[in-house]
Amino acid sequence: MRLDKFLKLSRLIKRRTVAKDVSDQGRVWINGRDAKASSTVKLGDELSIQFGQKKVTVKVEALTESTRKDDAAGMYTLVKEEPFQKDDV
């Protein structure tokens, strides 16, 4: 599944266009590597996303083509949430 689509379906980011922009700005990493919007997300991958001054790391638990709001949180598990420092990358 494409990264931007996963971020939108899991509701980590509200809109797919915003997910694309965030990814293309270099604020998303898959397993520690820079990721673009078209990068492929697989089960078990760890995604790190920079939201302003914090960095959220989640583990991909499910990939579904469509999801309801109640089920979206089941697509990932929160691994950690920490303040973002520029040298973290």
Would you kindly provide a brief summary of this structure?
This protein has 89 residues and is α+β, with helices and mostly antiparallel strands. 18% of the residues lie in helices and 29% in strands.
Distance between the termini: 24 Å
The oligomerization state is: single chain
Strand order of the largest sheet: 2-1-3-4-5
CATH topology annotation: Structural Genomics Hypothetical 15.5 Kd Protein In mrcA-pckA Intergenic Region, Chain A
- Main sheet properties: 5 strands, antiparallel
Task: Assign the CATH class.
Answer: Alpha Beta
Mean pLDDT: 89
Level-2 CATH architecture: Roll
Family: Belongs to the RqcP family.
Organism: Paenibacillus eucommiae
InterPro entries: RqcP, S4_RNA-bd, S4_RNA-bd_sf
Subunit structure: Associates with stalled 50S ribosomal subunits. Binds to RqcH, 23S rRNA and the P-site tRNA. Does not require RqcH for association with 50S subunits.
Describe the structure.
The protein has 89 residues and is α+β, with helices and mostly antiparallel strands. The chain has one domain (3-88): Structural Genomics Hypothetical 15.5 Kd Protein In mrcA-pckA Intergenic Region, Chain A (Roll), CATH 3.10.290.10. 18% of the residues lie in helices and 29% in strands. The protein has two helices and five strands. The chain has helices spanning 3-9, 16-24; strands at 28-30, 33-34, 46-51, 54-60, 76-83. A five-stranded antiparallel sheet has the order 2-1-3-4-5. Strand 3 (46-51) and strand 4 form a beta hairpin. Helix 1 crosses helix 2. The longest helix has 9 residues, at 16-24. It is globular, with a radius of gyration of 12 Å. This is RQC P-site tRNA stabilizing factor. Belongs to the RqcP family. Keywords: Protein biosynthesis, RNA-binding, rRNA-binding, Stress response, tRNA-binding. Associates with stalled 50S ribosomal subunits. Binds to RqcH, 23S rRNA and the P-site tRNA. Does not require RqcH for association with 50S subunits. Pfam families: S4 (PF01479).
